[in-house]
Amino acid sequence: MAGSRRLSEHQQQHFVREGYLHGLPAVYSPAEVRDLHAGLQGLLALLKPGETSKEIREWHESSRFLYDICMHPVILDYVEDLLGPDFYLWGSNFFIKEPRSLSTVGWHQDAYYWPLDPHESLTIWLAFDDSTVENGAMTVVPGSHRAGLLKHIRVRETDSVLMLECERGQFAEDTAVPVTLKAGEVSIHDDKLVHGSPANPSAMRRAGLTIRYSRTNVKCDLSINPHFTTYLCRGTDTFRYNPVGVVPTQRFGRLERQHVSVEEAGTGAEKKLGRV
Ligand SMILES: O=C(O)CCC(=O)C(=O)O
Known about the structure:
about 280 residues, 7 helices, binds 2-oxoglutaric acid
């Protein structure tokens, strides 16, 4: 496509049609993946007793190690080819499944979780480990993003790390495909794509970092997530809808501010956003 930085026209069209992309050249070499692993250990060392890797959320605001990953020029080229010239970074969190872990990720659309409008965001999923069918790779329902936002229900008795799940019957679960990756590779998914992942019965860890980017015209409802913070990645932000963050200087640092998703904000937030 004219002016595209890294993705072919075919790849961009696949993303628009199917809502996801993988099979891209690795962003990090095997030697660099070893540095990623060491960095992950540096972050895990900051967790307090009783906390899990789920707590490492938006720590790109406090850890230069993560901030630099989120601003990797190759990753930003991919995002620019799909979101256009003006976009910001606002989210990052790990999905780590230890060996023989029962925990799953229930079917959901990211856009349902985020108090953002319009829905013009995407996720980069960076594999820290090989992500295979055996160790619970993410699974996506191709084309499901085109149906718009689907009804989600709150589930309590579940192995899923998420509580809001797409109500069954609204999407073609039987067409789901696994998104397998080698460590150092990324996949990309649209914020309305239905996706989830099964448990990890294998002996191999499956760690991935999700990084969230939005077009600059996307506005956060700060009454739901008052800590929403943006970092302009490319282009200009003529809208200035959202707070702007300070680039972290320490390599590893905790973020003590608690970000709030629609899941955590409760049904009041779902009502306010017109989702129930
Ligand atoms: O890593 C996974 O298994 C799921 C990731 C996910 O749900 C997300 O990117 O929102």
